[in-house]
Amino acid sequence: MLKFFCSSLLVDINTSHFYISRQTAKLRRTTALEATAPVPFDIEQDINHFCANWKSVFASYPDRKLLLELIVDDVLVKYFVLAPPTQARSLKDLHAAAQMRLETLFGVPGDDWLISADWQGNQASLVCAVPKVLLEKIGVASKQSGQKILSLQPRFVWLWNQCKQRLAADGWFASVDEQAMTLAACQDGSLHMVTSILLPKDSDNTWLHTQLQRQAMLHHLTPPAQLLLAGRIPAAWQTSQLHRTHQYQIAKTDFANKITTAKASSVSMAEVAS
Asked: How far is CA 122 from the centre of its chain?
């Protein structure tokens, strides 16, 4: 509840830029949108360099010590769907099953990742794993800068929570960023698949259509009758073809799209997100 009564900085972190906007407590209005200069954001760098880079991001920002709401790039995290194990009797059982699946799918040590999910006892759960080293360094860097973290969400989760009510029972949803598209597919109202796909520099509608067909084949699904797109939609996707059809719908654009749009028109940020 605290977030509804306090102003905060909404900080969108990807691997080269931070996008920062100020959210006022009243109606969660977002203002003062700006992108920082490119900064190295390597979770493998030592803690001193990480903290120095973090401090430089906020050095010239007047409200740098407000509460922080962090959005983390999808390329820094891992997603998968967990069907409820037959023998699971508790949340601890579900968490153990998720850790085993993480290790099997991605070949990483499960103890090095913080696993969270919308745990479901009777249907598939959306699971997200974030590197613990990333969380630890963000915690140290923000503390040294005199900041408090109000929330931290991966990009897909952040957009999914805002858009999922618009999704049809068999619809698909895509969270798009500068480097990757995280694609989720529902079947009979239940989440069936989630996967991240790296974006080529020249991706267009043909590339997008090919990816939908490929993922449908891989996961034994019917290609979507509805695809909700959210995030930084590539310019090549925003063509007349995209807007003529009911299959592709832009559910929500985010920071980079809004920055570009703000320079071209006087449309308010509330109107940019359809």
From this structure: 25
